[in-house]
Amino acid sequence: MTGNEAEYLTKKEITELLNSKINVRDKIIIRLFYETGCTLKELVLIKIKDLDFKENKITIQAKNIKNNLVRKIIISKTLTKKLFLHTQNNSSEKRIFESRQEEQLTERRVQQIIASHSKQIIGKKISPRDLRVTHIIHAFLDQKPIEKIEKTVGIRNIQPYIYSYFKQK
Question: Does residue 136 register a pLDDT over 50?
């Protein structure tokens, strides 16, 4: 990994975040980062047509993404239901997260949402990247095959994340 080392959350901390009394949209954002390991840019670009409610899958499009890979990721039935209810009255071409001022939530606004809720609920500010790293670490600790984790998050080598985890221990 390059730059600052990312934080990762314990399973207790992620459970506290997901079970907290925050608004539905923000809880969906947190759950999407945690379940898919997507990047901030990927999250704000997701359109309703990228959701497959019958198969419990989300497609992360390659457009504007560094690795140029389209990924289909299985998501929980809980998240599928929340996404369905959140998007059911909108056009399939729309982004799943919109703001009042713009067509889509900005990356900066998503960062603020994550930082604010995490500070309030678990006592530390985290970023979308930290939720991505948490996905990688928890999948590894749950003994998911490394190749599958790499394919899900669109990273060729997750070893630096794993090394960082053990280094922090």
Answer: yes
